[in-house]
# Entry
Amino acid sequence: MPLCTNVRARDGLIKKGLARSSIRGVQFHLTAAVLCFAGCSQWETRFEVTTFGEAGGATGFTEPRFEEGSFRVDARKNYVMVFEVPPEWVSVESDDPQEGTAPNDAMVTSDQSPLHDEVLMSQIIQVEVFWRPLPGRTYAQRTQTNANILYCLIRGESSISYEGAGFVYFEPSRDGNSVEGRIESAALFPTRFTKDPIDLFGPCHLTGSFRAVENKRQVATIRQQLRKLLGPPMTSSSSASAY
# Structure
């Protein structure tokens, strides 16, 4: 179900919005697409961001390039999931002479060699589910939340995180080695920044479907990367008040 009416949907390559930015502002060059999952696999890993303009309308951005995620179950039986668009060198249009500089040591390196007009970009989503709804046994309201969610955009040495709370539903496989599910809704706010990031979204909503496999090492690696980039984690209430 759409989050709102009057939604203008644009297909993801969010990196293009970042790549076409300049110190004067941000331009978007995204191809049109529907925001829903019509014609897609039910459990395709795919996320959508809905932003809200001053006039009351909304714009949707889909990001289909996230890879299959990883998850682990912590000592309190909470599920921690991470999803990534791996780092890649992207040509940029910018007036900033520093755009082509190499990333800091918090970034994952690429086998490709950078050019003077290229910058390393990546995206990360982290989902921490602290209770799991059970079909037929859990009564859920529209405003209910069961997860802390973080969406990080990384552009060279700059990064920005959108953080908040949401409602996540998923089902583990019979052997417990994988999960499939959806982020039904999540309200996120710009929260932590490094260097001079581009705020593409402002306050926004995140939805999407996902599949993840158990991989404790990958979860630890991504969480360590986020901590190096952004510093200590914040609570969902702190995220809302930070904007």
